[in-house]
Specification:
Number of strands: 0
Mean pLDDT: 85
Order of helices and strands: HHHHHHHHHHHHHHHHHHHHHH
Distance between the termini: 52 Å
Radius of gyration: 22 Å
Largest sheet: none
Number of helices: 22
Helix content: over 70%
CATH architecture: Orthogonal Bundle
Structural class: mainly alpha
Length: 503
Amino acid sequence: MITFIISFIALIAGYFIYGRFVERIFEPDDRATPAITKADGVDYLVLPNWKIFMIQFLNIAGTGPIFGAIMGMWYGPSAYLWIVFGCIFAGAMHDYLSGMLSLRHGGAALLVIFGAYLGKSIKNIMMCFSVLLLVMVGAVFVLSPASLMASLFEGTILNDLLLWMIIIFLYYIIATLMPIDKIIGKIYPLFAFSLMFMAVGLLIMLFVYFPNLPEIWDGMGNLGETRLGIKNPDPLFPALFITIACGAISGFHATQSPLMARCMKSERQGRPIFYGAMITEGMIALIWATISSYFFYADGWREVLAATSPEQLLKVESQLQAGVGITQVFGNAAEVVMVMCNSWLGVIGSVLAILGVVAAPITSGDTALRSARLIIADFLSLDQHSVRKRLYISIPLFLVTLMLLVWQIENKDGFNIIWKYFGWANQTLSVFTLWTLTVYLATRKKCYYVSMIPAIFMTIVCVSFFCISKQSLNMLPVAGYFIAIICSLIMVFIFYRWKRTLK
Protein backbone atom coordinates (compact mmCIF):
# COMPACT_ATOMS: atom_id res chain seq x y z
CA MET A 1 0.00 0.00 0.00
CA ILE A 2 2.98 2.34 0.50
CA THR A 3 3.71 2.35 -3.24
CA PHE A 4 0.06 3.12 -3.93
CA ILE A 5 0.01 6.06 -1.49
CA ILE A 6 3.22 7.54 -2.91
CA SER A 7 1.91 7.08 -6.46
CA PHE A 8 -1.41 8.73 -5.63
CA ILE A 9 0.30 11.77 -4.10
CA ALA A 10 2.67 11.94 -7.07
CA LEU A 11 -0.25 12.21 -9.51
CA ILE A 12 -1.76 15.11 -7.56
CA ALA A 13 1.60 16.87 -7.38
CA GLY A 14 2.09 16.24 -11.10
CA TYR A 15 -1.09 18.15 -11.92
CA PHE A 16 -0.03 21.25 -9.99
CA ILE A 17 3.69 21.21 -10.87
CA TYR A 18 4.22 19.62 -14.27
CA GLY A 19 0.74 20.52 -15.48
CA ARG A 20 1.41 24.19 -14.81
CA PHE A 21 4.81 23.87 -16.53
CA VAL A 22 3.21 22.46 -19.69
CA GLU A 23 0.52 25.15 -19.56
CA ARG A 24 3.17 27.88 -19.46
CA ILE A 25 4.86 26.35 -22.50
CA PHE A 26 1.63 26.52 -24.49
CA GLU A 27 0.66 29.99 -23.16
CA PRO A 28 -3.17 30.04 -23.28
CA ASP A 29 -4.71 33.48 -23.76
CA ASP A 30 -8.11 35.22 -23.98
CA ARG A 31 -8.77 34.91 -27.73
CA ALA A 32 -12.26 33.91 -28.84
CA THR A 33 -12.75 30.14 -28.94
CA PRO A 34 -14.44 28.04 -31.69
CA ALA A 35 -17.49 27.58 -29.42
CA ILE A 36 -18.10 31.31 -29.92
CA THR A 37 -16.73 32.03 -33.39
CA LYS A 38 -18.17 28.89 -35.06
CA ALA A 39 -21.26 28.25 -32.93
CA ASP A 40 -23.72 25.96 -34.76
CA GLY A 41 -25.80 24.53 -31.91
CA VAL A 42 -24.73 20.98 -32.82
CA ASP A 43 -20.99 20.42 -32.25
CA TYR A 44 -19.88 24.00 -31.55
CA LEU A 45 -21.59 25.43 -28.48
CA VAL A 46 -20.57 26.71 -25.04
CA LEU A 47 -21.04 24.28 -22.14
CA PRO A 48 -20.37 24.89 -18.41
CA ASN A 49 -16.82 24.12 -17.28
CA TRP A 50 -17.84 21.36 -14.86
CA LYS A 51 -19.91 19.63 -17.54
CA ILE A 52 -17.05 19.76 -20.07
CA PHE A 53 -14.72 18.21 -17.51
CA MET A 54 -17.15 15.39 -16.70
CA ILE A 55 -17.79 14.63 -20.37
CA GLN A 56 -14.08 14.73 -21.20
CA PHE A 57 -13.30 12.45 -18.27
CA LEU A 58 -15.92 9.88 -19.27
CA ASN A 59 -14.99 10.11 -22.96
CA ILE A 60 -11.36 9.25 -22.29
CA ALA A 61 -11.91 6.89 -19.36
CA GLY A 62 -14.61 4.39 -20.22
CA THR A 63 -13.45 1.04 -18.88
CA GLY A 64 -9.84 1.63 -19.94
CA PRO A 65 -8.41 2.64 -16.55
CA ILE A 66 -10.32 -0.25 -14.94
CA PHE A 67 -9.79 -3.23 -17.22
CA GLY A 68 -6.33 -2.16 -18.38
CA ALA A 69 -5.13 -1.58 -14.81
CA ILE A 70 -6.50 -4.92 -13.60
CA MET A 71 -4.72 -6.84 -16.36
CA GLY A 72 -1.62 -4.62 -16.20
CA MET A 73 -1.05 -5.47 -12.54
CA TRP A 74 -0.68 -9.10 -13.59
CA TYR A 75 2.83 -8.03 -14.60
CA GLY A 76 3.51 -6.78 -11.06
CA PRO A 77 4.16 -3.48 -9.20
CA SER A 78 6.02 -2.04 -12.20
CA ALA A 79 2.52 -1.08 -13.35
CA TYR A 80 2.57 1.69 -10.72
CA LEU A 81 5.57 3.35 -12.33
CA TRP A 82 4.00 3.29 -15.78
CA ILE A 83 0.70 4.75 -14.54
CA VAL A 84 2.39 7.58 -12.62
CA PHE A 85 5.17 8.59 -15.00
CA GLY A 86 3.15 7.75 -18.09
CA CYS A 87 0.17 9.78 -16.92
CA ILE A 88 2.08 12.88 -15.75
CA PHE A 89 4.77 13.18 -18.42
CA ALA A 90 3.07 11.55 -21.40
CA GLY A 91 -0.69 11.03 -21.16
CA ALA A 92 -1.83 14.25 -19.47
CA MET A 93 0.60 16.32 -21.51
CA HIS A 94 -0.60 14.52 -24.67
CA ASP A 95 -4.26 15.20 -23.87
CA TYR A 96 -3.68 18.84 -22.88
CA LEU A 97 -1.58 19.86 -25.87
CA SER A 98 -3.70 17.96 -28.42
CA GLY A 99 -6.86 19.53 -27.00
CA MET A 100 -5.34 23.02 -26.97
CA LEU A 101 -3.94 22.56 -30.47
CA SER A 102 -7.43 21.70 -31.68
CA LEU A 103 -8.70 24.79 -29.88
CA ARG A 104 -6.13 26.96 -31.66
CA HIS A 105 -7.11 25.48 -35.02
CA GLY A 106 -10.81 26.20 -34.81
CA GLY A 107 -11.78 22.97 -33.04
CA ALA A 108 -10.20 20.93 -35.85
CA ALA A 109 -10.22 17.15 -35.72
CA LEU A 110 -6.98 15.31 -35.13
CA LEU A 111 -6.21 14.49 -38.76
CA VAL A 112 -6.41 18.16 -39.78
CA ILE A 113 -3.70 18.89 -37.22
CA PHE A 114 -1.66 15.96 -38.58
CA GLY A 115 -1.88 17.48 -42.04
CA ALA A 116 -0.84 20.93 -40.82
CA TYR A 117 2.35 19.71 -39.15
CA LEU A 118 3.25 16.29 -40.60
CA GLY A 119 2.14 16.84 -44.19
CA LYS A 120 -0.71 15.85 -46.49
CA SER A 121 0.49 12.25 -46.99
CA ILE A 122 0.46 11.55 -43.23
CA LYS A 123 -2.94 13.26 -43.03
CA ASN A 124 -4.40 10.91 -45.64
CA ILE A 125 -2.88 7.82 -44.04
CA MET A 126 -3.99 8.79 -40.55
CA MET A 127 -7.50 9.59 -41.78
CA CYS A 128 -7.97 5.93 -42.64
CA PHE A 129 -6.07 4.77 -39.55
CA SER A 130 -8.04 6.99 -37.13
CA VAL A 131 -11.45 6.15 -38.57
CA LEU A 132 -10.65 2.41 -38.50
CA LEU A 133 -9.52 2.72 -34.88
CA LEU A 134 -12.71 4.56 -33.89
CA VAL A 135 -14.92 2.07 -35.74
CA MET A 136 -13.16 -0.75 -33.86
CA VAL A 137 -13.93 1.05 -30.61
CA GLY A 138 -17.57 1.29 -31.62
CA ALA A 139 -17.68 -2.42 -32.50
CA VAL A 140 -15.93 -3.81 -29.40
CA PHE A 141 -18.02 -1.61 -27.12
CA VAL A 142 -21.29 -3.07 -28.32
CA LEU A 143 -20.70 -6.75 -27.60
CA SER A 144 -19.18 -6.49 -24.10
CA PRO A 145 -21.92 -4.36 -22.45
CA ALA A 146 -24.62 -6.29 -24.34
CA SER A 147 -23.26 -9.59 -22.97
CA LEU A 148 -23.27 -8.27 -19.43
CA MET A 149 -26.78 -6.84 -19.69
CA ALA A 150 -28.09 -10.14 -21.04
CA SER A 151 -26.44 -12.05 -18.17
CA LEU A 152 -28.01 -9.72 -15.60
CA PHE A 153 -31.49 -10.73 -16.81
CA GLU A 154 -30.86 -14.47 -16.93
CA GLY A 155 -34.11 -16.43 -16.88
CA THR A 156 -36.20 -13.55 -18.29
CA ILE A 157 -37.23 -12.37 -21.74
CA LEU A 158 -34.47 -9.76 -21.55
CA ASN A 159 -31.79 -12.47 -21.50
CA ASP A 160 -31.19 -11.94 -25.20
CA LEU A 161 -27.77 -10.88 -26.46
CA LEU A 162 -29.06 -9.81 -29.87
CA LEU A 163 -31.77 -7.64 -28.31
CA TRP A 164 -29.27 -5.70 -26.20
CA MET A 165 -26.89 -5.33 -29.14
CA ILE A 166 -29.69 -3.80 -31.19
CA ILE A 167 -30.64 -1.43 -28.34
CA ILE A 168 -27.04 -0.29 -27.82
CA PHE A 169 -26.41 0.13 -31.53
CA LEU A 170 -29.60 2.19 -31.96
CA TYR A 171 -28.40 4.40 -29.12
CA TYR A 172 -25.08 4.85 -30.94
CA ILE A 173 -26.94 6.04 -34.03
CA ILE A 174 -29.00 8.57 -32.10
CA ALA A 175 -26.07 9.88 -30.00
CA THR A 176 -23.85 10.25 -33.09
CA LEU A 177 -26.42 12.34 -34.95
CA MET A 178 -27.90 14.47 -32.15
CA PRO A 179 -26.44 17.82 -30.98
CA ILE A 180 -23.83 17.24 -28.27
CA ASP A 181 -25.87 18.96 -25.54
CA LYS A 182 -29.05 16.89 -26.11
CA ILE A 183 -27.88 13.42 -24.98
CA ILE A 184 -24.14 13.47 -24.24
CA GLY A 185 -24.31 16.77 -22.37
CA LYS A 186 -27.15 15.50 -20.16
CA ILE A 187 -26.34 11.88 -19.25
CA TYR A 188 -22.53 11.81 -19.39
CA PRO A 189 -22.01 13.89 -16.23
CA LEU A 190 -24.22 11.42 -14.34
CA PHE A 191 -22.22 8.43 -15.54
CA ALA A 192 -18.94 10.22 -14.85
CA PHE A 193 -20.09 10.99 -11.31
CA SER A 194 -21.01 7.31 -10.81
CA LEU A 195 -17.57 6.21 -11.99
CA MET A 196 -15.89 8.68 -9.61
CA PHE A 197 -18.16 7.74 -6.70
CA MET A 198 -17.33 4.07 -7.21
CA ALA A 199 -13.61 4.88 -7.24
CA VAL A 200 -13.85 6.98 -4.04
CA GLY A 201 -15.77 4.21 -2.27
CA LEU A 202 -13.15 1.64 -3.24
CA LEU A 203 -10.35 4.02 -2.20
CA ILE A 204 -11.86 4.30 1.28
CA MET A 205 -12.18 0.52 1.53
CA LEU A 206 -8.54 0.08 0.52
CA PHE A 207 -7.51 2.17 3.52
CA VAL A 208 -9.97 0.32 5.77
CA TYR A 209 -8.47 -3.07 4.84
CA PHE A 210 -4.93 -1.72 4.22
CA PRO A 211 -3.73 -5.04 2.77
CA ASN A 212 -0.11 -6.13 2.66
CA LEU A 213 0.69 -5.90 -1.05
CA PRO A 214 3.80 -6.27 -3.23
CA GLU A 215 5.72 -2.99 -3.33
CA ILE A 216 7.83 -1.56 -6.11
CA TRP A 217 11.02 -2.30 -4.14
CA ASP A 218 10.09 -5.99 -4.06
CA GLY A 219 11.24 -6.24 -7.66
CA MET A 220 10.59 -4.84 -11.14
CA GLY A 221 10.34 -8.21 -12.83
CA ASN A 222 7.28 -10.04 -14.05
CA LEU A 223 5.78 -10.85 -10.67
CA GLY A 224 2.70 -12.37 -12.25
CA GLU A 225 4.87 -15.01 -13.86
CA THR A 226 6.77 -15.90 -10.68
CA ARG A 227 3.95 -15.66 -8.10
CA LEU A 228 0.78 -16.36 -10.07
CA GLY A 229 2.19 -18.64 -12.73
CA ILE A 230 0.90 -16.45 -15.58
CA LYS A 231 2.43 -17.42 -18.89
CA ASN A 232 2.17 -14.12 -20.73
CA PRO A 233 2.79 -14.64 -24.44
CA ASP A 234 4.59 -11.29 -24.68
CA PRO A 235 7.37 -9.89 -22.41
CA LEU A 236 6.75 -7.20 -19.80
CA PHE A 237 8.36 -4.66 -22.11
CA PRO A 238 6.56 -3.64 -24.23
CA ALA A 239 3.33 -5.55 -23.40
CA LEU A 240 2.70 -3.67 -20.12
CA PHE A 241 2.70 -0.35 -21.99
CA ILE A 242 0.11 -1.62 -24.44
CA THR A 243 -2.07 -3.28 -21.77
CA ILE A 244 -2.28 -0.15 -19.62
CA ALA A 245 -3.13 2.54 -22.13
CA CYS A 246 -5.97 4.76 -20.92
CA GLY A 247 -4.52 4.99 -17.41
CA ALA A 248 -1.17 6.24 -18.75
CA ILE A 249 -1.36 7.43 -22.38
CA SER A 250 -3.85 6.72 -25.14
CA GLY A 251 -4.04 7.97 -28.72
CA PHE A 252 -7.82 7.57 -28.56
CA HIS A 253 -7.90 10.57 -26.22
CA ALA A 254 -6.61 12.87 -28.96
CA THR A 255 -9.67 11.97 -31.04
CA GLN A 256 -11.94 12.92 -28.13
CA SER A 257 -10.36 16.19 -26.99
CA PRO A 258 -11.56 18.15 -30.08
CA LEU A 259 -15.16 17.34 -29.08
CA MET A 260 -14.70 19.35 -25.89
CA ALA A 261 -12.42 21.95 -27.51
CA ARG A 262 -15.51 22.93 -29.50
CA CYS A 263 -17.45 23.61 -26.29
CA MET A 264 -14.94 25.68 -24.26
CA LYS A 265 -15.49 29.37 -23.63
CA SER A 266 -11.87 30.13 -22.73
CA GLU A 267 -8.42 28.66 -23.44
CA ARG A 268 -7.63 29.04 -19.75
CA GLN A 269 -10.01 26.16 -19.01
CA GLY A 270 -7.61 23.79 -20.76
CA ARG A 271 -5.45 22.57 -17.87
CA PRO A 272 -8.32 21.59 -15.53
CA ILE A 273 -10.28 19.98 -18.36
CA PHE A 274 -7.66 18.16 -20.43
CA TYR A 275 -4.73 17.68 -18.06
CA GLY A 276 -7.00 17.33 -15.03
CA ALA A 277 -9.26 14.71 -16.61
CA MET A 278 -6.26 12.55 -17.48
CA ILE A 279 -4.81 12.83 -13.97
CA THR A 280 -8.21 11.82 -12.59
CA GLU A 281 -8.19 8.82 -14.91
CA GLY A 282 -4.71 7.93 -13.67
CA MET A 283 -6.01 7.96 -10.09
CA ILE A 284 -8.76 5.54 -11.00
CA ALA A 285 -6.20 3.32 -12.74
CA LEU A 286 -4.07 3.34 -9.58
CA ILE A 287 -7.06 2.34 -7.45
CA TRP A 288 -7.98 -0.58 -9.69
CA ALA A 289 -4.36 -1.67 -10.09
CA THR A 290 -4.12 -1.83 -6.28
CA ILE A 291 -7.40 -3.72 -6.02
CA SER A 292 -6.10 -6.16 -8.63
CA SER A 293 -2.93 -6.59 -6.56
CA TYR A 294 -5.02 -7.31 -3.45
CA PHE A 295 -7.33 -9.63 -5.37
CA PHE A 296 -4.63 -11.78 -6.99
CA TYR A 297 -1.40 -11.42 -4.97
CA ALA A 298 -2.88 -11.17 -1.46
CA ASP A 299 -5.61 -13.78 -2.07
CA GLY A 300 -8.25 -11.09 -1.72
CA TRP A 301 -10.54 -13.15 -3.92
CA ARG A 302 -10.78 -15.71 -1.13
CA GLU A 303 -11.84 -13.10 1.42
CA VAL A 304 -14.46 -11.40 -0.73
CA LEU A 305 -15.98 -14.66 -1.95
CA ALA A 306 -16.15 -16.04 1.59
CA ALA A 307 -18.20 -13.00 2.57
CA THR A 308 -20.47 -12.81 -0.49
CA SER A 309 -20.63 -16.22 -2.19
CA PRO A 310 -19.35 -19.30 -0.29
CA GLU A 311 -20.61 -21.54 -3.11
CA GLN A 312 -18.49 -19.69 -5.67
CA LEU A 313 -15.53 -19.88 -3.28
CA LEU A 314 -15.76 -23.69 -3.20
CA LYS A 315 -16.03 -23.75 -6.99
CA VAL A 316 -12.94 -21.55 -7.44
CA GLU A 317 -10.92 -23.62 -4.96
CA SER A 318 -11.80 -26.81 -6.81
CA GLN A 319 -10.69 -25.22 -10.09
CA LEU A 320 -7.36 -24.23 -8.52
CA GLN A 321 -6.86 -27.76 -7.18
CA ALA A 322 -7.46 -29.03 -10.71
CA GLY A 323 -4.53 -26.91 -11.93
CA VAL A 324 -6.42 -23.94 -13.37
CA GLY A 325 -4.55 -20.65 -12.81
CA ILE A 326 -6.15 -17.89 -10.73
CA THR A 327 -6.09 -15.40 -13.61
CA GLN A 328 -7.78 -18.01 -15.79
CA VAL A 329 -10.54 -18.43 -13.24
CA PHE A 330 -10.98 -14.65 -13.10
CA GLY A 331 -9.71 -13.98 -16.60
CA ASN A 332 -12.50 -11.51 -17.30
CA ALA A 333 -11.71 -8.11 -15.74
CA ALA A 334 -15.43 -7.30 -15.63
CA GLU A 335 -15.94 -10.23 -13.25
CA VAL A 336 -13.30 -8.85 -10.88
CA VAL A 337 -15.09 -5.48 -10.94
CA MET A 338 -18.45 -7.01 -10.12
CA VAL A 339 -17.08 -9.23 -7.32
CA MET A 340 -15.12 -6.42 -5.64
CA CYS A 341 -17.86 -3.79 -5.89
CA ASN A 342 -20.50 -6.20 -4.62
CA SER A 343 -18.31 -7.19 -1.66
CA TRP A 344 -16.92 -3.81 -0.63
CA LEU A 345 -19.75 -1.48 -1.64
CA GLY A 346 -22.84 -3.66 -1.25
CA VAL A 347 -26.01 -2.95 -3.24
CA ILE A 348 -24.85 0.54 -4.16
CA GLY A 349 -21.58 -0.92 -5.35
CA SER A 350 -23.36 -3.41 -7.58
CA VAL A 351 -25.37 -0.63 -9.20
CA LEU A 352 -22.24 1.48 -9.70
CA ALA A 353 -20.39 -1.53 -11.08
CA ILE A 354 -23.12 -1.98 -13.65
CA LEU A 355 -22.88 1.69 -14.56
CA GLY A 356 -19.10 1.45 -14.74
CA VAL A 357 -18.90 -1.80 -16.70
CA VAL A 358 -21.93 -1.22 -18.94
CA ALA A 359 -22.36 2.54 -19.33
CA ALA A 360 -18.65 3.37 -19.58
CA PRO A 361 -17.94 1.29 -22.71
CA ILE A 362 -21.19 2.47 -24.29
CA THR A 363 -20.25 6.10 -23.77
CA SER A 364 -16.82 5.43 -25.27
CA GLY A 365 -18.45 3.74 -28.26
CA ASP A 366 -20.86 6.53 -29.13
CA THR A 367 -18.27 9.31 -28.85
CA ALA A 368 -15.87 7.21 -30.94
CA LEU A 369 -18.38 7.10 -33.80
CA ARG A 370 -19.15 10.79 -33.30
CA SER A 371 -15.41 11.56 -33.55
CA ALA A 372 -15.19 9.43 -36.71
CA ARG A 373 -18.04 11.46 -38.25
CA LEU A 374 -16.32 14.74 -37.42
CA ILE A 375 -12.92 13.53 -38.69
CA ILE A 376 -14.43 12.58 -42.05
CA ALA A 377 -16.40 15.83 -42.17
CA ASP A 378 -13.25 17.88 -41.59
CA PHE A 379 -11.40 15.81 -44.19
CA LEU A 380 -14.13 16.44 -46.80
CA SER A 381 -14.81 20.00 -45.59
CA LEU A 382 -18.45 19.02 -45.20
CA ASP A 383 -20.64 21.21 -42.97
CA GLN A 384 -22.44 19.21 -40.25
CA HIS A 385 -25.18 21.68 -39.37
CA SER A 386 -27.98 19.75 -41.11
CA VAL A 387 -29.08 16.21 -40.26
CA ARG A 388 -28.95 15.27 -43.94
CA LYS A 389 -25.22 16.05 -44.19
CA ARG A 390 -24.55 14.17 -40.95
CA LEU A 391 -26.30 11.15 -42.45
CA TYR A 392 -24.07 11.28 -45.54
CA ILE A 393 -21.14 10.34 -43.33
CA SER A 394 -22.86 8.42 -40.55
CA ILE A 395 -24.68 5.79 -42.62
CA PRO A 396 -21.47 4.32 -44.15
CA LEU A 397 -19.85 4.44 -40.70
CA PHE A 398 -22.75 2.54 -39.15
CA LEU A 399 -22.69 -0.06 -41.93
CA VAL A 400 -18.94 -0.72 -41.51
CA THR A 401 -19.34 -0.92 -37.71
CA LEU A 402 -22.25 -3.33 -38.16
CA MET A 403 -20.21 -5.55 -40.51
CA LEU A 404 -17.35 -5.64 -38.03
CA LEU A 405 -19.81 -6.46 -35.26
CA VAL A 406 -21.31 -9.35 -37.23
CA TRP A 407 -17.83 -10.74 -37.92
CA GLN A 408 -17.03 -10.42 -34.22
CA ILE A 409 -20.12 -12.47 -33.28
CA GLU A 410 -19.54 -15.20 -35.85
CA ASN A 411 -15.91 -15.73 -34.79
CA LYS A 412 -15.39 -17.36 -31.41
CA ASP A 413 -12.33 -15.26 -30.56
CA GLY A 414 -13.46 -12.23 -32.59
CA PHE A 415 -13.69 -9.81 -29.66
CA ASN A 416 -10.20 -10.65 -28.36
CA ILE A 417 -8.69 -10.33 -31.84
CA ILE A 418 -10.21 -6.88 -32.43
CA TRP A 419 -9.29 -5.76 -28.90
CA LYS A 420 -5.64 -6.74 -29.32
CA TYR A 421 -5.32 -4.87 -32.59
CA PHE A 422 -7.16 -1.92 -31.09
CA GLY A 423 -4.62 -1.77 -28.21
CA TRP A 424 -1.66 -1.52 -30.57
CA ALA A 425 -3.43 0.87 -32.97
CA ASN A 426 -4.42 3.04 -30.02
CA GLN A 427 -0.84 3.51 -28.83
CA THR A 428 0.43 3.95 -32.40
CA LEU A 429 -1.97 6.85 -32.80
CA SER A 430 -0.46 8.41 -29.67
CA VAL A 431 2.97 8.17 -31.35
CA PHE A 432 1.80 10.24 -34.33
CA THR A 433 0.10 12.72 -32.01
CA LEU A 434 3.24 13.15 -29.89
CA TRP A 435 5.43 13.77 -32.94
CA THR A 436 2.85 16.28 -34.22
CA LEU A 437 3.00 18.13 -30.90
CA THR A 438 6.79 18.09 -31.08
CA VAL A 439 6.75 19.70 -34.53
CA TYR A 440 4.22 22.30 -33.38
CA LEU A 441 6.31 23.29 -30.36
CA ALA A 442 9.47 23.43 -32.46
CA THR A 443 7.84 25.75 -35.01
CA ARG A 444 6.82 28.05 -32.15
CA LYS A 445 10.34 27.86 -30.66
CA LYS A 446 9.02 26.37 -27.45
CA CYS A 447 10.36 23.55 -25.28
CA TYR A 448 9.59 20.59 -27.54
CA TYR A 449 11.32 18.05 -25.30
CA VAL A 450 8.12 17.67 -23.23
CA SER A 451 6.55 15.80 -26.16
CA MET A 452 9.65 14.56 -27.97
CA ILE A 453 10.92 12.34 -25.15
CA PRO A 454 7.53 10.56 -24.74
CA ALA A 455 7.33 10.32 -28.56
CA ILE A 456 10.65 8.49 -28.72
CA PHE A 457 9.66 6.17 -25.88
CA MET A 458 6.26 5.31 -27.36
CA THR A 459 7.82 4.77 -30.78
CA ILE A 460 10.07 2.13 -29.23
CA VAL A 461 7.08 0.58 -27.43
CA CYS A 462 4.84 0.35 -30.49
CA VAL A 463 7.50 -0.82 -32.95
CA SER A 464 8.91 -3.43 -30.56
CA PHE A 465 5.41 -4.72 -29.72
CA PHE A 466 4.58 -5.08 -33.40
CA CYS A 467 7.81 -7.01 -33.95
CA ILE A 468 7.72 -9.19 -30.82
CA SER A 469 4.04 -9.89 -30.21
CA LYS A 470 2.75 -13.37 -30.96
CA GLN A 471 -0.21 -11.82 -32.78
CA SER A 472 1.97 -9.92 -35.25
CA LEU A 473 5.56 -10.68 -36.43
CA ASN A 474 6.52 -12.94 -33.48
CA MET A 475 10.20 -12.02 -33.66
CA LEU A 476 12.82 -12.65 -30.99
CA PRO A 477 12.71 -9.87 -28.33
CA VAL A 478 16.31 -8.81 -29.00
CA ALA A 479 15.59 -8.36 -32.70
CA GLY A 480 12.40 -6.45 -31.95
CA TYR A 481 14.13 -4.08 -29.54
CA PHE A 482 16.93 -3.46 -32.05
CA ILE A 483 14.49 -2.59 -34.85
CA ALA A 484 12.50 -0.35 -32.51
CA ILE A 485 15.59 1.62 -31.44
CA ILE A 486 16.69 2.02 -35.08
CA CYS A 487 13.22 3.31 -36.05
CA SER A 488 13.29 5.81 -33.16
CA LEU A 489 16.74 7.06 -34.16
CA ILE A 490 15.50 7.53 -37.73
CA MET A 491 12.55 9.58 -36.45
CA VAL A 492 14.90 11.75 -34.37
CA PHE A 493 17.21 12.22 -37.37
CA ILE A 494 14.30 13.26 -39.61
CA PHE A 495 13.05 15.68 -36.99
CA TYR A 496 16.37 17.45 -36.49
CA ARG A 497 17.03 17.57 -40.22
CA TRP A 498 13.65 19.29 -40.64
CA LYS A 499 14.28 21.55 -37.66
CA ARG A 500 17.41 22.94 -39.30
CA THR A 501 15.21 24.30 -42.07
CA LEU A 502 13.32 26.51 -39.61
CA LYS A 503 14.21 30.18 -39.59
